[in-house]
Amino acid sequence: MLLIPDPKLKSDILEGLIQEVVKYTVYLTDKCAQSLEKMRVKLLSDVKKRNNRETIRAKMDRTFALRRQEVIYDAPMMSNVQARWPALFDAMEINAEFKRITTMPLQSRFLSQLDLLSERLLRVFAKRSGEQGKKLKDIAAMMTDDIDAGRESLIKGLCIYLNENPDVLVQEYMVSVL
Predict the structure, then answer these.
(1) What helix, strand, coil percent values describe the chain, rounded to 5?
(2) What number of CA atoms fall less than 13 Å from residue 43's CA on the CB side?
(3) Structure pTM?
(4) Is 85 exposed, middle or buried, given 0-12, 13-18 or 19+ CB atoms closer than 10 A?
(5) Mean of pLDDT values over 144-173
(6) Which residues contact 165 (CB under 8 A, 6 or more apart)?
(7) Are 142 and 155 in contact (CB under 8 A)?
(8) Residue 107's closest CA among 117, 92, 122?
(9) pLDDT, tens digit, for every residue of 85-111?
(10) Which of 63, 148, 169, 173 is most buried, judging by how many CB atoms fall within 10 Å of its CB?
């Protein structure tokens, strides 16, 4: 007989599983943590250098356990994570970190899910009225057969739907990339 648990039971099972995995998969000893901390400090200077992507990627791979331990046990504020691990906030490194954690590529996964949900999102956008509805209808009208333009329109539409300014989102991204 096939068991189909309700969402609450499934959530409880997954939460318990996460707690058990966390207990047994962090293998850092004090000596190892000290070594990784030294590597993290060197990484801070490497981030400031140009054309250093491969070195940064390698050090971020090696320091994953330290980063994971800090996040799980210390639960630092985002500003502290950003100060200690500035390389983590690079677009390529975000993709790499997601893959380290989930073994799936973030960007292609996100875009494929966006493509799958595009029709439903357009239906949700069409149900809005007022000023927000007008903006969403204008964005939906701009969608073409060009897949990149369609994805861009959907993301802008999501920003508007969530009462965010899509122009500010792009500006924040550009500032962080530069």
Answers:
(1) 80, 0, 20
(2) 25
(3) 0.63
(4) buried
(5) 82
(6) 159
(7) no
(8) 92
(9) 999 998 899 999 999 998 899 999 999
(10) 63
Q: Return the structure tokens found at 66.
A: 């330290």
What token pair was written down for 125? 């956008």
Where does the pLDDT of residue 19 fall: very low under 50, low under 70, confident under 90, or very high at 90 and above? confident
In this structure, the number of other CB atoms found within 10 A of the CB of residue 96 comes to 20
- DSSP letter for 57, please: H
- Distance between CA atoms of residues 47 and 155, nearest Å: 30
Region at 76 (left for phi over 0; alpha for psi -120 to 50; beta for the rest): beta
Phi-psi region of 75 (alpha: psi -120 to 50; beta: other; left: phi over 0): left
Q: Are 157 and 121 in contact (CB under 8 A)?
A: yes
Q: How far apart are CA 21 and CA 15, in angstroms?
A: 10
CB 68 within 8 A of CB 100: no
Distances 27 to 20, 22, 69, 107 between C-alpha atoms, Å: 14, 10, 9, 29
The DSSP-derived string for 62-118 is HTHHHHHHIIIII---HHHHHHH-GGGGSHHHHHHHHHHHHSS-HHHHHHHHHHHHH
One-letter amino acid at 136 equals L
